[in-house]
Design brief:
The chain has about 425 residues and is of the alpha/beta class. The chain is built from 13 helices and 17 strands. β2 and β3 form a beta hairpin. It binds 4'-deoxy-4'-aminopyridoxal-5'-phosphate (PMP).
C-alpha cells in the first residue's frame, strides 16, 4: 500500500458527497441530505451503548453546572475520585492500585512511553529505554503514540523518533525470541493491543504467554492498550482479563461512551510503589485530564453498563456478529473473517486471489453507506464494531444491507 493510498483513511470519502451527519440516536445516523443509515461501528468504536444515552448526557450536564472547570492538576476532585474508585472496582478481579487520567488514547500512550522509562530510571535501570510493540498496531497520533504504532502513518515525514522502538509481527514467536535475546536488558515495556484494530486481529495466546514469561526474566512492564477492546467489546469486561494482569491498562473510547475527550491509565502496584517510594513526580499533567464532565461521564457509563446488562447483550451481539461473518465466509473463499466478540472484520479478495486495494475498500464502504449501513474501512477489509446493546431486529437489517453489498461484489458488480 502506498502512502498516498493510506492517506485516504484520514479524509472523508468524496463519494459521501454532502451527506454530512446531522444527528444520531440509538443506532441510527441522520445525514444532511435526509438519508439515514444504521451505524455498524459505534461512532469510532466509542459509542458502545449507542448514540444519545440520556443518563450519560444528564450526568455531564450536572457536572457542567456544578463544577465545569474544576481541574485536578495539583488537587483532587470528588468527580475524579469517584470515577477512579468505580474504575478500580469495575476492573476486578485484576487489582490495579491507581488511576491516572489523560485526554485521548494518543496522549495516554505518550504517557505510557514516559512512565515506562521513568519507572526503570527510578529502579536504577536507565538502560531500559526501548519499547516493543506490534508491526500492524495502532496506538495514536501524538509523537510518542506514533513512535510505538506499527502501522505506517507518515512517521518518517513527521520525524517521529523511533530509534528506541522495536516492532515485531503480532503472530511471530521467533521474532519475539530474537528481539528478547538481542535487546532484553534494554526493554522498558511491551505494549499489546489484545485485538489489533487494524483488521481485528487477535494476538495469539502463545505470543501473550511468551511476553509474560519474558517479563519474569527481564522485568520490563507489560502494557495492555485496551483503548478499543475495553468494556465488553471483545466479550469480557476487558480482553486482558484473559491474561495474567498487565502492569498498565490503557482505556479510552467506550470509557465515556464517546461523549468526552477522556482516557485513563490503570496502574498496578509495581508501578505505583516505585513512584511512591521514590517520591517522584510523573510529568504528564494535562489541563483537561480528569475533568468533572469526563469523570461524571465515566461513572454514568459504568452505571449504564450495569443497568443495560451489557455483559449479556454484548455476548448476544458478539454471537450474532460471529454467525454473520461465518455466513459471509460461506459465500465464497474470497471472504475471510477475523476478530473476536463484537469486534470483527472481513478481508475480501478479488477473483485473481489478491487482497482488495484501498479504492475498492472505499467503494464498498460507500456502497454500504448508500444502502443504509455504516461500516469501517481497514487495509483490504471492512470492519464491524456495532453497539453492544443493538436490538436483534436492527441487526437483521444492518446485516442484510451489508450482505447485499458483499454478494453483489462477489458477483462482479463492482469489478
Ligand atoms: N490505541 C488504540 C488501540 C486505538 O484503537 C486508538 C484509536 N483508534 C488509540 C490508541 C488512539 O486513541 P485516540 O484516537 O483517542 O487518540
Amino acid at each position: 500500500m502506498s502512502s498516498s493510498e493510506y492517506f485516504e483513511f484520514y479524509v472523508p470519502s468524496k463519494d459521501w458527497g454532502n451527506a454530512e451527519a446531522t444527528a444520531a440516536r440509538g443506532n441510527t445516523i441522520t445525514f444532511a441530505d435526509g438519508t439515514e443509515a444504521l451505524c455498524g461501528i459505534s461512532g469510532l468504536w466509542n459509542a458502545s451503548l449507542g448514540y444519545g444515552n440520556v443518563a450519560i448526557a444528564e450526568a455531564i450536564n450536572e457536572a457542567n453546572l456544578n463544577a465545569a472547570t474544576l481541574p485536578i492538576f495539583r488537587r483532587g476532585s470528588a468527580y475524579s475520585r469517584e470515577a477512579a474508585t468505580r474504575l478500580l472496582e469495575f476492573v476486578l478481579p485484576h487489582e490495579y492500585s491507581s488511576v491516572f487520567y489523560a485526554t485521548s488514547g494518543s496522549s495516554a500512550l505518550d504517557a505510557v512511553v514516559k512512565l515506562s522509562r521513568q519507572f526503570h530510571d527510578i529502579n536504577s535501570n536507565p538502560k531500559r529505554r526501548r519499547i516493543v510493540s506490534f508491526t500492524a498496531s495502532y496506538h495514536g497520533v501524538t509523537m510518542g503514540a506514533m513512535a510505538v504504532t506499527g502501522s505506517y502513518l507518515f512517521q518518517d515525514v513527521y520525524q517521529v523518533d523511533q530509534r528506541l522502538n522495536i516492532k515485531i509481527p503480532y503472530d511471530d514467536l521467533a521474532a519475539l525470541d530474537i528481539v528478547m535475546k538481542r535487546f532484553g536488558p534494554e526493554i522498558a515495556a511491551v505494549i499489546m493491543e489484545p485485538v489489533l484494530g487494524s483488521g481485528a486481529l487477535p494476538v495469539p495466546q502463545d505470543i501473550v504467554d511468551a511476553v509474560y514469561a519474558y517479563r519474569e526474566s527481564e522485568g520490563f512492564l507489560i502494557v495492555a492498550d485496551e483503548v478499543a477492546t475495553g468494556f465488553h467489546r471483545t466479550g469480557p469486561r476487558f480482553a486482558s482479563h484473559d491474561w495474567i494482569q498487565p502492569d498498565v491498562l490503557v482505556l479510552s473510547k467506550a470509557l465515556t461512551n464517546g461523549t468526552c475527550a477522556a482516557s485513563a491509565l490503570l496502574l498496578g502496584d509495581r508501578v505505583v510503589d516505585a513512584f511512591d517510594q521514590a517520591q517522584q513526580v510523573f510529568w504528564h499533567g494535562e489541563t483537561q485530564a480528569g475533568s468533572p464532565q469526563s469523570c461524571a461521564a465515566i461513572v454514568a457509563t459504568l452505571d449504564e453498563i450495569e443497568r443495560l446488562d451489557i455483559a449479556t447483550s454484548a455476548a448476544r451481539v458478539g454471537r450474532r456478529l460471529a454467525a454473520f461473518v461465518s455466513g459471509l465466509e460461506s459465500l465464497s473463499p474470497r471472504v475471510k473473517g477475523f476478530g473476536r466478540g463484537s469486534f470483527r472484520a472481513v478481508q475480501l479478495f478479488d477473483d485473481a486471489g489478491e487482497l482488495i486495494g484501498t479504492d475498492k475498500v472505499f467503494e464498498l464502504v460507500s456502497e454500504c453507506r448508500r444502502r443504509g449501513a455504516v461500516v469501517q474501512p481497514s487495509p483490504g477489509a471492512v470492519q464491524f464494531v456495532p453497539a453492544l446493546n443493538y436490538p436483534d431486529a436492527e441487526l437483521d437489517v444492518l446485516f442484510d444491507r451489508i450482505q447485499s453489498v458483499v454478494t453483489d461484489y462477489l458477483a462482479g458488480q463492482f469489478a
